[in-house]
Design brief:
The chain is an alpha/beta fold. It has 14 helices and 22 strands. Helix 13 (361-370) links the parallel strand 17 and strand 18. The chain starts with a strand and ends in a 6-residue tail after the last strand. The relative contact order is 0.10.
């Protein structure tokens, strides 16, 4: 029998039944800190090491003995329990829930948490889920690590331009050093924090413009009407067929209208809006702020520069590049503080690309190379020369191609009646990269 025991945050959370199971167990497995706190004897303990070895040791002993696995907080909330389910069938594990850091922190700050978006940044270098949570929710809880301390998170949000949010930090919950702080993002960025902490981000101001499909172009910042019109956006997004976790590159983003509406569709994905004109970049950032679409990452670069560097490097906030990091497994534990500043990594391939402008032969070829297998590419073309260039490149690749021509008419008053005014025809080319070379 394998019991996975949540120990809560302090000794007061240890129930008599939990302590009885630990005393009677032949083997007690878990992190060294927990084993030491409970005074588990050397001949009864299995310290947490590499997860596969740890699971193998538990399985071997559980065939003939009673085993308890110790977990901080609740074992199934970014805890060891979720990791063990990769190695054991559910019926092989008996879970014992307990009070989590999330539950306690929300209680301390009097925050209802039924709609809270919970995520762990422990051991991870992808901050996209954080920005997705801020885009679609009003309360987000973050389990942290030494790379994602409260000051580092605050700096990350400020670099993205996030406004309308404040930070609650619960340090050393349940212990004698417990401290609760409600603070602005600029203030949080300047402080140091206890090594054990959990962050709650609370929305304090609603966006001025609702993030929705069919955004009113009159409410968006743009230059001289330079934006993808609403009917084209709707059709292009339908052709992209974005799943909730897509990685979309919006190349030649203009006002960012396609990026914004894509952000509305993505529950946990990412959108990278690339634009070379400085004024248009300012418009995109302003539109992101108006709608609160914080998962849209705005990159000021030419398509050629971005496609050459962005696919294999970490694109820093100020246009510098460095090697991308690695991803590890998270757990419900808050680790050491550090002043490390997270960067945004584009090392993952885009699953979808919308090319709204600049569809030259080299750009299309590079997009085709970087697009993930099975990924979708949609190209907008107004000029016949752009249409022919795209057809030629995709023809060389042998990818399936469908060309759509969109001509939209909108009513306009005339002589006490209405007339229909046509917009410029737009070609939308849709294709999908083969899943393999075979």
């Amino acid at each position: 029998m394998i019991h996975v025991l949540g120990l809560g945050l302090c000794r007061a959370h240890h129930s008599p039944d939990t302590l009885s199971l630990i005393r009677s167990a032949d083997l007690v497995a878990g992190g060294s800190r927990l084993l030491n706190e409970l005074g588990i004897e050397e001949d009864r303990r299995l310290p947490l090491t590499a997860l596969d070895e740890f699971a193998a040791g538990i399985r071997d002993r559980a065939q003939r003995e009673n085993v308890c696995v110790l977990a901080d907080g609740d074992p199934l909330l970014y805890g060891i329990g979720a990791s063990l389910l990769r190695f054991f069938a559910p019926h092989e594990l008996t879970f014992h829930p307990n009070v989590s850091a999330l539950q306690t922190a929300c209680a301390r700050f009097s925050l209802p948490w039924h709609d809270c978006r919970v995520l762990s940044l422990h051991g991870r270098d992808d901050q996209a889920p954080l920005f997705a949570a801020l885009t679609h929710g009003s309360l987000a809880a973050l389990y942290t690590d030494h790379n994602h301390s409260p000051d580092a998170i605050a700096r990350l949000l400020l670099e993205r331009g996030v406004t309308g949010w404040r930070m609650h930090v619960a340090e050393a919950l349940g212990g004698p050093e417990e401290q609760l702080t409600t603070i602005t993002l600029p203030e949080a960025a300047q402080r140091s924090w206890h090594t054990l902490n959990i962050i709650l981000l609370e929305r304090t101001q609603a966006p001025t413009l609702t993030l929705e499909l069919g955004l009113d172009e009159n409410a968006l910042a743009h230059a001289d009407g330079l934006m993808t019109k609403q009917p084209v956006r709707a059709f292009a997004l339908s052709l992209l067929r974005l799943p909730p976790d897509a990685t979309l590159w919006d190349l030649g983003a203009g006002s960012g209208a396609v990026s914004l509406e894509a952000a509305r569709l993505l529950g946990k994905g990412r959108v990278v809006a690339v634009e070379r004109q400085a004024e248009r970049v300012r418009h995109i950032k302003k539109n992101v702020a108006r709608t609160g679409a914080w998962l849209v990452e705005v990159v000021h670069a030419s398509l050629e520069e971005f496609l050459e560097n962005g696919s294999s490097r970490t694109y820093g906030t100020h246009g510098t590049y460095s090697k991308a990091g690695t991803t590890q497994i998270g757990r419900e534990t808050c680790l050491e503080h550090t002043s490390h500043r997270p960067h945004t990594s584009y090392s993952s391939l885009p699953t979808h690309i919308f090319l709204g402008g600049g569809a030259s032969d080299p750009v299309l070829a590079r997009c085709a190379d970087l697009l993930a297998p099975g990924g979708r590419l949609v190209v907008a073309a107004v000029l016949l020369s752009t249409l022919e260039t795209a057809r030629a490149v995709l023809g060389r690749l042998g990818w399936p191609l469908t060309v759509h021509q969109l001509i939209h008419h909108a009513s306009s008053p005339l002589g006490g009646d209405l007339r229909l005014v046509p917009s410029n025809p737009v070609f939308l080319l849709e294709t999908q990269k083969p899943s393999s070379d075979t």
